Structure formats: C-alpha cells, structure tokens
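User: quick one, fold this
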Amino acid sequence: MLLTILILSCTKKTNNKVKTQQYAIDYHSYAQPNKAVATHLNLKLDVHFDTKIIDGVASYLITTQNNASAIVFDTKNLEILKVEANKKPTKFQLEKTDDILGRALKIELPKNAKTVTIYYKTTAKTEALQFLNPQQTADKKHPFLLTQGQAILTRTWIPIQDSPQIRITYNATVKVPNELMAVMSAKNPKQKSKDGVYHFEMKQPISPYLIALAVGDLAYKKISDRTGVYAEKTVIDKAHYEFADMEKMVTAAENLYGKYAWQQFDVVVLPPSFPFGGMENPRLTFATPTVIAGDRSLTSLIAHELAHSWSGNLVTNATWDDFWLNEGFTVYFEMRIMEALYGKDHANMLAAIGRQDLEEELQGMKNTPNDTKLKLNLKGRNPDDGMNSIAYDKGYLFLRTLENTVGRSKMDVFLKTYFNEHAFSTMTTERFIDYLNKNLLDKNDITFNVNEWIYKPGIPKNAITVKSTKFKDVENSINQWKNGKITAKEICNQDWNIQQKIHFIRNIPKEISKVKMNALDTHCSFTNSTNSYITMVWFEQAINHDYHANNVDSKIEDFLMHVGRRWYVSTIYSALKNNGEIKKAFAIYKKARPNYHSVTRNTIDEMLAYK
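Assistant:
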C-alpha cells in the first residue's frame, strides 16, 4: 500500500531555496508532526525501586507550522500531573484509550510556543519498564531496572511523539539509589556517582524507540578506546572475554560502509529476563546474557546490533510498515562483518540457519500470506506482529540476491552512498525503491524484480541459495547416523563448531527413535549444554520426539523459569503446544510469567490463550 505523504513542519535550505521535508502517515502514533513537532527532549527522572515507579519531567523544544494551536504526544498507562507551554500552565486533554496505541495527549499551545513541559508518573501497567528484584539478577544483591521501547513502548515510560520518523536529540538527568549506576543510549559514565545522580547527552537525533535506560549494580570494562562492556560484577569478566572482538567488528564495519557515527560502541549485559537477543540502542547496545557461551560462538548478535548503527539508527524505517528496511539491511550487513572477520563459509552457515528460520516462518504464515510481504500493512495491529523472520531473513535474501545480480562492488558503492546521503533521516519503502532504481539498477541498465520481492507474498524464484560446505558435511553425517552407518558417539566426536551442531540438532529426522535420542544426549550432553542456543534447539527437538530421559523435562522447566528471551521461550512453548502438552506449557508459564518482560508476556499470553 502506498502511503499518503504529508508536509512536515521542518524545512531545510538547499541552494538558497527552502526545501520542505515530508512525513509519512504513521498509523501507530497519534502525533501530528506536520502541525507541531518536538525536536529536543530534556528529561528528568527519579527512579523509585520501592514503589516501582518513575517520577518524570519531559521538557521539549518544539517547532510549529502555521501557528498550530495544539501539539499531540503519545502516552500509554501514564499519569499526567500537569503540563506547561512556554513555562506557563496550559490546558491538556487525554483522549480515548486504544488497547494498542494508548491515549493521545493533546496540549494547547499559545502563539509562538517554543517549549512544552509534561510532569508525569509511570504506573504499574507501564509496559516498557521491568523492575527486577535481587534474586532475578546475576549478583543477587541489588534490584535492577531495564527498559525496552521498540516498537511503540517508549510512550509507556515517556510522554513522547512515538513515531520512528520523528527524530530528536535529548539530555537526561536520572536519580537512582546511591549503590546503583544508571546508563542510557547516550554518553555514559564509566563509574558510579557518589550521590546516585547521572547526566546524559545524546547530540545526534534518534528515533524515540531508541531511548533506553538501565539501572543496576553495574561495572564497566574497556575493550578499546571506543568499545567496552557494562555488566554486573559476576558477569563483567565473562562479558569482556566474550565480546573481545568488538573493536575489530567496528573496524570491519567502517571498512565496508563508512565511519561509525556514534563515537562510542558499548554493550550492557542485562539480566536474563531481557526479551530480545540484543537491542541496538545507540552508543549502548542492550544484550541478553544468553549470548555469553564462553567461546565467542554467538557474537554474531553483537555484529548485528553494531550493523544497526548504520541501518536502523542512522537510516531508520519511517513507519513500522517499513520495518524490513531496518532488519533486512542489518542482517545483510551483519553477514558481511562476520565474513570479513571469520570467513565466507562461517557467514554462509549463519545465513543458511536464517534461511531455515525463514522457511519455518513461511510455513507458519501459510494462512496469512500478506504477512510474508516485505512492505506490510499493520494498521490496527500491534507493530510487533511484523517483527519476525520475514523482515530479517527475507529482507536479507532480497539484498543478497540483489548483490548476486549487480555484483558486490556495485552493491557496496550503492550501500555506502545510501547510508551517507540519508544519515540521521528516515526512509519509506517507496522512497527506497525510487533511490534503488535511480542509483543502482537504471544507472547500470540492470533489470530486477524489486516489486515482486517487496509487495508480493512468499519468496521469488530468483532467490539465491546460500550454501555451506560445512553444513553439507553435517547433512551427510545425519544420513549415515539415520541409516545406522555411524553411532551417536561418532557423531559427538565430530570436530564441529557451534553452528554445525545447531544445524545437526535442528535437522534430526522425525523418525529417529527415543533410544537414538537418548544415545545422542548421553554422548553429546545436549540437555546439559552451557550454550543457550544449543539448549533451546535441543529442547525443541526433545519435545518434538517425546524424549524425556536425562532429566530433560526439569531442565526445560528450569530454562523457561530463568530465561526471558522471547525467541527462545516462544520456541519451546510452541513446541509444547504443538505436541499436545498445552497443560504442561500452561503450568510452567503460570510460574515463569512474572519473570518475563511485557514484550515476552504478550507473545506467550496470545500463544497459550492465557488470561
């Protein structure tokens, strides 16, 4: 669906002429930025762990068009105490509540209004915030707070114009208990303050979903002058070892697509309830502890979040219908970083696993084919519905196939120019197609089925097949094992890397007996693996094969009780549901649910019809 374009209130001068910018209609925000738009946020927060509430003051610099009489912000489950315009009290109205979008906050403006200040409190229903008690942390001594704003949850902890195309700069002052440290997606402290007060500055304009806060008993350990890790004390050394290649990743990324624009690239390792593998908050990636495997085998996630520093943070999807512009480009960039550091076959293994994920997603969406298009229509739906393998892996496959068609050298010149020319701006699918045609395809007299890839369901026939010689070896071993030509012990003695092991587990034939499953587990010890990815795929196969030996059932329950990464837990709950064990899934979830972030709860609530 083509989006109607509205006139934006901001303007730029080009060749002494005023050029009017444009906003696309965003069905997931009440804001009317073509009339009045926020450009800078000064945020003051007081974090109360006893009540699990944040007292906040959000002061905005605003720009209005044609003497607009009002400005509209997005809110959800916030208590609005009072509002000022130009530092004087003004009238405001909270409009009707929508279950997905929350409530519009409409604020009256005097003539020539330049500032708006909103005094507010979060509530127990604030979805972006997760307050954790000490037992839910690694060190078990102090509480923890984390936020997750993507896609439209920033409005649940800050009243804001919560559309990805409305980029703002921000400053923040955050008060926390003296024994804790606060860090944000901004310029961060490296040591605790004495009084629990922290000051932050983000000079580059970012989308609201990228504003993030974490508070805990954190320490910092430097990797290079521009990279390092934050984590709890019992985790910091493990994280520092695991992410030792971060500087190499930044350098590899810069060699591909230009200078890193955010000065600092740090990672904070959060408690296991964090719902995603990582979140690309600029200057401070949020990461799950499930990537700490002790052997640096899962650090492609860090490469992925780093790649977002160009695709997503630097050039951002204008609306959530255009989400593939963030994730498809990022997966492509991630693979290029991994290839530069670890070789082509390693990158191809990761891409092949992604293709398997995509095929599973397509099978699950066979009754909703429109959801397999890259350009979505999420009007009236939660934008989280579009955050799946279609955006990531079909988006990647589109770009990889495009590269195969035009040649890598032309592709790299195109992408580097694309990121440079659109830095700190937002992009719709339609504008990208125009740019692609003009600057790559037409320019080189190349024909490519762009519209089929973007606007049609499924995978076009010209999609490239990603091959891995190491995966071929795994597949040969699977066939030999299935036919009794090699034993489980011989399988487990193979000199396979983590990706090969994952490929093996995911492709265990359906007809494999419980006896063979038990022999495999006995020799490979998959049930007791310390690699969370292996554990997740093995538990899925154990459920699919009705395998209950080696205490696997209690291990599955323990995993679901202590890990909150949505992908991992939803995979296991889905396997339980699909194999007739819905009562078991429900019983475990009832106990585990309080440990999960709202993002994960919402997914599993719907899956299990939990009320």
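User: anything notable?
Assistant: Residues 1-20 have pLDDT under 50 and may be disordered.
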